Predict the 3D structure of the following.
Amino acid sequence: MEICSTNENVSKCSSNTMSMECFMVLSTPAQKIGITVLCCFFGILCIFENSLVLYLIFSSIKIRRKPSYVFISSLALADLLASINFVGSFVKFHVFKVTDSKNIFLLKLGAVNTSFTASLGSLLLMALDRYVCICKPSEYKIIITKKKALVALAVLWMTTMVIAFLPLVGWNCCTLNSNCSELFPFVDDKYLSGWISLVMILLVCIVCAYMHVLWKAHKHTAYMEKHQTQAVQQNAKMRLDVTLAKTLAIVLTVLMVCWSPLLALMTYSVFVNLNNRIKKVFAFCSTLCLVNSMVNPIVYALRSRELRSSLRNACSWCRKKLKIPGSSQEVDSTQKLSTIGTVCEDAGCSTDWPQLKSEL
């Protein structure tokens, strides 16, 4: 690794080629085994969990017709693709030291970047959905429709793809003959700075939306405590709506914890030359992206009653097919649970809350 001891070997690109060995910072078998175990463990869990979430959503007509779950399915799809693309490319490059041409490498990097950026964008759309549902419940069904949700997701995915593949179509340090990032081969420092700024803006927007949502959720809780004589059904739906707001706040917290170290190191690399030790820290911190993608579906499964009910129904169906005793009782219980409304159901964000709306 002596050839990579100076920054000039990393920050320059000539004839569309550069020393890829400068970016392969894992030098010991223990480091390679550690990265492989982390990537495979988190990656397999991500693929299983997000595939399960997508199945539960699309196997239920009642669930998949709701805009909120359209956004959740986009998040699950983005996390699924991110785990597949990231694990394959990351392990292949850092552990097995298999290199690709410039265009192939930037194509793979663009796929990973698209997935993770789309995941972040889906969280922003979910935050806006919660904002409208809690702050403007009587107008929710007019403002947020399934058609509008699909259009928003189409714009989101197309935008993230365009931004992610800019290095492939020409915004790279080889084409521009500019300084390359010390963390990503062929990536221009200015492009990396722009992508970091975009992520920061998205995070600020999400935080602002959730701060307002959680403030409204707190007022919901205080209102319900003062009006215990209201109908049980209405209270249940309001409490479930508040629960979902808290669920998405947990997802946001996990997102910040997992992405903050990466963004900090990326920002640091733009201004300061990095040594191999910091690059190794960045390599291990990169696996936090998989942790975020793994935690998202777990949070949904634990806190979304409709997804839990759908999961119980699926398990009960499997047990019934296998003729396992006790499956009939579980089917009855899951059918009762499935009748409880959750995410902005027809009565959840409608004019059924006149007193609440005036209270807010």
Q: What stands out?
A: DSSP finds 16 helices and no strands in the chain.
